[in-house]
């Protein structure tokens, strides 16, 4: 590795699925919309850490700035000063390939018969290859290697005298998951795919409207949560207010279960429920399904903390913080030396011997993907004096890849696709292991009538899935000629 390449220590020490994007939009004449969008993206940083971008409209021009890095690193006061206007959209992206390219940073901008449009996209378009080939045959030349640009150009070229007509023409052709924010010179639009796989919600700020991937972003900028955008709904916002365009028919919904388990922040609201409380219930059901005699319950910070609290309450075993997380490991130009590589997971977590020494420990985690970090974490607890370590996971085993907007390993890399639960426990060195069942998970979520995507758990996807090469936009990025 040369000095110009960076090493993502977080990814070396992380065995979690990752979201690919967060989106934010605001229509607020008289407000500093670029600044509000900046702070909205700041609240959505967990959904993507590779790049960030903001586009604004002043009624004549769409102004756009994109940069690599975290939101706090990507923008300066000078950037915000050249983003004037009364409406804005923002996008924060997670790289699915580990390759950082500013050309792939959203929002995407293109031209249409209605003028310029900018699009922020969270999700994954499964048939992006076929659509790109079709558009290239029509003379389109692509700048990026993302399905988001394919989506933006498809919408821009769709027939229609207004954006709603263009969207209605485009949506049936998009196979996959998409929550969108779209900016024109005059209006802001928000769109959610007919399955509602990825979240999107509406808020109000001083009589103006905001849309965001999660309600936590609304709270951050002082907005009031109104509601979630319905699957298949198009929301149109301009100087006259907000107009909802609902689909003629509502199909079966398929909200991503891992939004509730892991992706979305615990302070966000999804399906009209605070996720911190939903995850506590997951932990409680996990305790019912997999009880064990132990002295202390420890959650893997921070994502498993609510479930660990729920497990402790239900089981009567005391909860304590036994692991402290270093939240500032990230992309760096400095490689760890051999000694630091050997201690591995200690770069990310430190154990507290005062909590663990001589104790039978229940370790709560939200997922085990490849199993690469679970064994080092179990060893970390044992080295701190834990007498027994019992792993409990507040999600079912992940046995299939995700093709709907999550960076998830290929099936042959997923430990639950290769080993039984008992074998996984032996592999990671735990004294026992237990996963929350799918039935128990749905009971904990407690959303009667709600439909969910269980693809990564069962292999049953809510959209047609055929050839992996067709589905996986990672291939599109990997095979692209470097910029």
Describe this structure in words.
The protein has two domains: 7-254, Glutamine Phosphoribosylpyrophosphate, subunit 1, domain 1, CATH 3.60.20.10; 274-458, Rossmann fold (3-Layer(aba) Sandwich), CATH 3.40.50.2020. The protein has a seven-stranded antiparallel sheet with strand order 5-4-6-3-12-11-13. A six-stranded antiparallel sheet has the order 7-8-9-10-14-15. It starts with 6 loop residues before the first strand and ends with a helix. The chain is built from 20 helices and 27 strands. With 483 residues, it is an alpha+beta fold. It is 30% helix and 26% strand. Residues 1-10 and 467-483 have low confidence and may be disordered. It is elongated and about 70 Å long.
Features:
Rossmann fold, 20 helices, alpha+beta, 483 residues, 7-stranded antiparallel β-sheet, Glutamine Phosphoribosylpyrophosphate, subunit 1, domain 1, 27 strands, 2 domains, single chain, 6-stranded antiparallel β-sheet
């Amino acid at each position: 590795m040369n000095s110009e390449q960076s090493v993502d220590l977080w990814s070396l020490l992380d065995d979690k699925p990752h979201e690919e994007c967060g989106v934010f939009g605001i229509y607020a004449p008289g407000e500093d919309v670029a600044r509000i969008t900046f702070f909205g993206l700041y609240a959505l940083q967990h959904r993507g850490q590779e790049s960030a971008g903001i586009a604004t409209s002043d009624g004549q021009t769409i102004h756009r700035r994109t940069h690599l890095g975290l939101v706090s690193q990507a923008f300066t006061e000078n950037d915000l000063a050249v983003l004037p206007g009364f409406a804005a959209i923002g996008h924060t992206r997670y790289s699915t390939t580990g390759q950082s390219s500013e050309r792939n940073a959203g929002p995407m901008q293109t031209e249409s018969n209605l003028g310029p449009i900018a699009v922020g996209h969270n999700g994954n378009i499964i048939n992006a290859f076929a659509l790109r080939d079709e558009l290239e045959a029509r003379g389109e030349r692509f700048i990026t290697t993302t399905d988001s640009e394919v989506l933006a150009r498809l919408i821009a070229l769709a027939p229609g005298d207004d954006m709603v007509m263009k969207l209605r023409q485009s949506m049936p052709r998009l196979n996959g998951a998409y929550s969108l924010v779209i900016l024109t010179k005059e209006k802001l639009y928000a769109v959610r795919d007919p399955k509602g796989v990825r979240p999107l919600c509406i808020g109000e700020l001083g009589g103006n409207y905001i849309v965001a991937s999660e309600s936590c972003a609304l709270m951050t900028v002082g907005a009031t949560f109104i509601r979630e955008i319905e699957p298949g709904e198009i929301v149109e916002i301009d100087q006259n207010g907000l107009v909802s365009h609902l689909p003629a028919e509502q199909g079966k919904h398929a909200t991503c279960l891992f939004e509730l388990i892991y992706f979305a922040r615990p302070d966000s609201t999804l399906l009209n429920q605070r996720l911190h409380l939903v995850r506590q219930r997951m932990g409680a059901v996990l305790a019912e399904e997999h009880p064990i005699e132990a002295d202390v319950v420890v959650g893997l910070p921070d994502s498993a903390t609510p479930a660990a609290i729920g497990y402790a309450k239900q089981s009567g075993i005391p909860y304590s913080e036994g692991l402290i997380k270093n939240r500032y490991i990230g992309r760096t130009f400095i490689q760890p030396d051999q000694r630091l590589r050997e201690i591995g997971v200690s770069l990310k977590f430190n154990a507290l011997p005062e909590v663990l020494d001589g104790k039978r420990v229940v370790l709560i985690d939200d997922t085990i993907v490849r199993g690469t970090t679970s064994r080092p974490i179990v060893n970390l607890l044992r080295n701190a004096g834990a007498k027994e370590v019992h792993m409990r996971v507040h999600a079912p085993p992940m046995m299939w890849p995700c093709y709907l907007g999550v960076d998830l390993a290929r099936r042959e890399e997923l430990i639950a696709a290769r080993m039984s639960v008992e074998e996984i426990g032996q592999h990671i060195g735990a004294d026992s292991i237990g996963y929350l069942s799918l039935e128990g998970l749905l009971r904990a979520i407690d959303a009667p009538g709600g439909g969910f995507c269980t693809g990564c758990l069962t292999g049953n996807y809510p959209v047609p899935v055929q050839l992996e090469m067709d589905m996986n936009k990672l291939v599109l990025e990997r095979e692209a000629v470097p910029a």
